[in-house]
Amino acid sequence: MNYEITGATKLTALLGSPVAHSISPQMHNEAFRQLGLNYVYLAFDVTSETLKDAVAGLKAVGICGFNLTMPLKVDILPLLDELTPAAKLAGAVNTVMVRDKKLIGHTTDGVGYLRSVSAAGHDISGKKMTLLGAGGAATAICAQAALDGIPSIDMFKRKNATWDKALEFCQKTSSKTGCKIRLLDLQNEELLAQSISESAILTNATNLGMAPNTSVSPISDPSILHKDLIVSDIIYNPRETLLLRQAKERGCFCMNGLYMLLYQGAAAFTCWTGQEMPIEIIQKKYFSN
Ligand code: NAP
Q1: Which residues form the catalytic set?
Q2: What is the pTM of this model?
Q3: What is the 3-state secondary structure (H, E, C) of the chain?
């Protein structure tokens, strides 16, 4: 397909730091090429300190949308004009759409994650989830799972300075969706074992196990993983974390974060272009596990 940058090419981008390793530019540019869309997607190294200037500049040159990665998903909030209901609930934004010069914040991490679970052949509706972590990705997953009708979620995190904020998130999401959400201490192994024994899916949305710290796992006793459990680590570097190796040995169905990355990107692509990303082509080219 003919694909040329022209005077009318529309700009989309990824903002974060670091971004040089990101697969998102290849994924989006290939999808634009496949569909013959006159868009380009670039990655810009932007920090919390440079975000305000970067966003003002991109807005001034007419960017039509952008993604945000760590650590900017929360930093962007005061710079936005509006939030979608999912972003409002999650309190974090990974996708911005520019409409009538207004910046609209959205999150596709939650829908992307849940789509990756169903694409793997699992239906978790009506079942319980144990979710580790309470950061940007965890709150997006929790909010979307609650909006999608998951009846019960146990969110485990460290008891530290962000505990009260996470508790407020759980109470707000619970009251808005009717999902029963408990915030529990990640150090409490007894409660963790109990929660996992009642759950259909265990989702790791902490950084534990992410490169370069690949020798750690959020689970210290792998015997608490039962064979009917889906163990899902949203980390994709490395492809197989220590948690997934522990789960594999226990006979669990294992998923890494690669397909969440694909599906959250596909949802952002639709926000900007109004079209479906050609998932199969992109998956084959960039996301083979
Ligand atoms: P974040 O907002 O910084 O949140 C990180 C979470 O990990 C927080 O809950 C934090 O705990 C917890 N954590 C960090 N170090 C810990 C430790 N030593 N012990 C216990 N908990 C610890 O980051 P994020 O954006 O949510 O990303 C989290 C992970 O998800 C990263 O590995 C990222 O690469 C991955 N991710 C994957 C995708 C995908 O598409 N597959 C998308 C987004 C993120 P506290 O709450 O106590 O601070």
Answers
A1: 73
A2: 0.93
A3: CCCCCCCCCEEEEEEECCCCCCCHHHHHHHHHHHHCCCEEEEEEECCCCCHHHHHHHHHHCCCCEEEECCCHHHHCHHHCCEECHHHHHHCCCCEEEEECCEEEEECCHHHHHHHHHHHCCCCCCCCEEEEECCCHHHHHHHHHHHHCCCCEEEEEECCCCCHHHHHHHHHHHHHHHCCEEEEEECCCHHHHHHHHHHCCEEEECCCCCCCCCCCCCCCCCHHHCCCCCEEEECCCCCCCCHHHHHHHHCCCEEECCHHHHHHHHHHHHHHHHCCCCCHHHHHHHHCCC
